[in-house]
C-alpha cells in the first residue's frame, strides 16, 4: 500500500514535474571543503604579503632593474666564471647553517665596463626574489661626499641627519654592495680609511655580507684602502673575482665619427672661422 508521499511522487512523475532529490552533504565533507577554501585564502594572502615585501626591498635597494642574469652577455671566460661563482654564492643562501656561519665578501675587480656592477646587481636581484635578502647598493664616492658635507653644521638641508640614517642602514642591511671603491684614488684619506674599515668590521661582527667593486687590482686596492681597512676585508670569507674581458660600453669616439660622416652640412662645434 502506497504512502501519501509515494503517491505524490508518482503523480509528479506522471505530470513530468519531479525534481531530483538533492544529495545533502554530510558535516565531514562540508568541513573539509571549508578548510580547503580557508587554506587557499591564507596561502594567497601569504603570497600577496611576500610579493609586497619583495617589492619594498627592491624599492629600497637602489639597484638598476636591468642588472639581471637574463640581460647579461656571457661573451668571455671571465664573465662565465664570474656567473658560476655568483650562482654558487646565491645557492649557498638556501642553507641556514651557511648563512649563520659567518660573514662573506665578494671582491669584483677589473677595468671599466667589464660587467662587475651588472653581475653584482644580478646577484642582489636573485637574493631578494628567492630569500627576501635586504640589499643596499651605493657608490662609495657618493657616501664619502655625503659624509664630508655632514660636518657642515651650518647647513640647512639636514645632511647630517640623512648621513646618520644611511649609516645605520649601511650597518644593518643583509647585503651591502659598494661600487666605485677608491675610484681615481691612489690612497684614501686616513679618516676615510678608518670610517670604512670600522663599517666593514661592524658588519662582519653581525654576519652581514658585502660585495666590493673596484677598478684597482688587489695590490692597488690594498694600498688605496690602507692596512686597517684592508685587514677588515681579510676577516671575511672572501671570494675574489677578476674581470679581464673586453669592455661592453660603446665608445663616444666611434659614435661621433659615424655621425660626422653622415653630416655633410650644418653647424660644426668649435669651428674657427
TrEMBL record:
Methyltransferase among keywords: no
Polar residues compositional bias, start-end: 254-273
Entries under CDD domains matching the protein: AAA
InterPro entries the UniProt entry points to: IstB_ATP-bd, P-loop_NTPase
Sorted UniProt keywords: ATP-binding, Coiled coil, Nucleotide-binding
Coiled coil: 24-55
Residues annotated as domain IstB-like ATP-binding: 78-225
Pfam families from the UniProt entry: IstB_IS21
ATP-binding as UniProt keyword: yes
Region Disordered, residue ranges: 248-273
GO molecular function terms attached to this record: ATP binding
Protein's name in the database: ATP-binding protein
Amino acid at each position: 500500500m502506497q504512502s501519501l508521499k509515494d503517491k505524490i511522487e508518482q503523480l509528479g512523475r506522471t505530470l513530468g514535474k519531479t525534481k531530483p532529490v538533492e544529495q545533502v552533504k554530510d558535516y565531514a565533507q562540508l568541513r573539509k571543503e571549508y578548510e580547503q577554501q580557508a587554506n587557499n585564502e591564507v596561502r594567497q594572502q601569504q603570497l600577496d604579503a611576500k610579493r609586497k615585501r619583495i617589492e619594498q626591498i627592491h624599492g629600497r635597494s637602489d639597484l638598476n632593474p636591468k642588472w639581471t642574469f637574463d640581460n647579461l652577455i656571457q661573451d668571455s671566460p671571465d664573465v662565465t666564471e664570474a656567473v658560476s661563482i655568483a650562482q654558487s654564492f646565491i645557492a649557498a643562501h638556501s642553507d641556514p647553517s651557511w648563512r649563520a656561519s659567518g660573514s662573506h665578501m665578494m671582491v669584483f675587480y677589473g677595468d671599466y665596463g667589464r660587467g662587475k656592477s651588472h653581475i653584482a646587481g644580478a646577484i642582489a636581484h636573485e637574493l631578494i626574489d628567492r630569500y627576501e635578502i635586504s640589499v643596499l647598493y651605493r657608490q662609495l664616492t657618493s657616501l664619502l661626499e655625503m659624509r664630508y658635507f655632514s660636518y657642515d653644521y651650518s647647513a640647512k638641508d639636514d645632511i647630517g641627519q640623512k648621513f646618520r640614517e644611511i649609516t645605520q642602514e649601511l650597518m644593518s642591511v643583509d647585503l651591502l654592495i659598494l661600487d666605485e671603491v677608491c675610484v681615481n684614488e691612489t690612497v684614501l684619506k686616513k679618516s676615510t680609511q678608518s670610517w670604512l674599515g670600522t663599517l666593514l668590521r661592524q658588519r662582519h661582527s653581525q654576519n652581514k655580507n658585502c660585495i666590493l667593486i673596484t677598478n684597482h687590482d688587489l695590490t692597488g686596492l690594498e694600498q688605496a684602502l690602507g692596512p686597517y681597512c684592508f685587514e677588515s676585508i681579510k676577516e671575511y670569507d672572501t671570494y675574489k673575482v677578476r674581470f679581464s674581458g673586453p669592455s661592453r660600453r660603446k665608445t663616444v669616439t666611434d659614435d661621433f665619427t659615424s655621425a660626422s660622416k653622415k653630416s655633410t652640412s650644418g653647424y660644426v662645434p668649435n669651428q674657427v672661422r
